[in-house]
């Protein structure tokens, strides 16, 4: 029974050609995007993936237990998926584009915003929108990502990926958007 559980765990946490310990966030999100791309092409009947020319909007994955909570890791996953789908030939719509360029002294010239009152007036429309959730466990962060048809509630493609909790990933789980410095332990103990 132990061997079966260990084998199952290794299969779940290993991506083709990537060691679970060596996998990076971009590699893991690329695998998820390829998986959803294949399913989307099949669901839309466009032939082989990638489904070039299909329009997508990508949103930030949220905590499965609180849909109003996210973190920098989830926002990075959104960015990596946006990169992959754009490079694959999808028409990715940037839903955070502001109506105008905002000039912030000490920060710079900004066009992306998460402030609803500054977002462009044009409502984006697309074939599908990516939504997702994440769950944090003592050793991993599990993302469940789905492409949902915008005209219905039909899931056109879905992928689940696991990101091991490395030092880099732990740092991305801390939400430092409030501007305060976080105090970090210098040693992390992981029990078997």
Explained architecture:
- With 192 residues, the protein is α/β, with parallel strands linked by helices.
- It has a single domain (23-173), classed as Rossmann fold (3-Layer(aba) Sandwich).
- The protein is 29% helix and 27% strand.
- The strands form 2 sheets. Strands 1, 2, 3, 6, 7 and 8 form a 6-stranded mixed sheet that branches. A two-stranded antiparallel sheet has the order 4-5.
- Strand 6 (128-136) and strand 7 (140-149) form a beta hairpin.
- Helix 2 packs across helix 3 (72-87) and helix 3 (72-87) crosses helix 4 (167-173).
- The protein is globular and about 50 Å long.
- Mean pLDDT is 77; it is low at 1-20 and 178-183.
């Amino acid at each position: 029974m132990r061997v079966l559980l260990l084998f199952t765990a290794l299969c779940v946490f290993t991506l083709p050609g990537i060691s679970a310990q060596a996998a990076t966030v971009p590699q893991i999100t690329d695998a998820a995007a390829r998986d959803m791309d294949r399913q989307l092409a099949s669901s839309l009947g466009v032939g082989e993936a990638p489904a070039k020319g299909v329009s997508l909007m990508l949103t930030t994955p949220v905590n499965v237990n609180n849909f109003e909570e996210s973190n920098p890791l989830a926002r990075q996953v959104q960015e990596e998926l946006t990169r992959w789908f754009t490079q694959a030939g999808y028409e990715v719509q940037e839903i955070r584009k502001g109506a105008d360029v905002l000039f912030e002294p000490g920060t710079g010239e900004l066009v992306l915003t998460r402030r609803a009152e500054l977002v462009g007036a044009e409502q984006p429309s697309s074939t599908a929108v990516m939504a997702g959730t994440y769950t944090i466990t003592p050793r991993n962060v599990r993302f469940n990502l789905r492409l949902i048809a915008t005209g219905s509630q039909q899931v056109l493609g879905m992928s689940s990926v696991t990101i091991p909790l490395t030092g880099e990933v732990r740092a991305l789980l801390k939400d430092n958007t409030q501007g305060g410095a976080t105090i970090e332990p210098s040693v992390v103990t992981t029990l078997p």
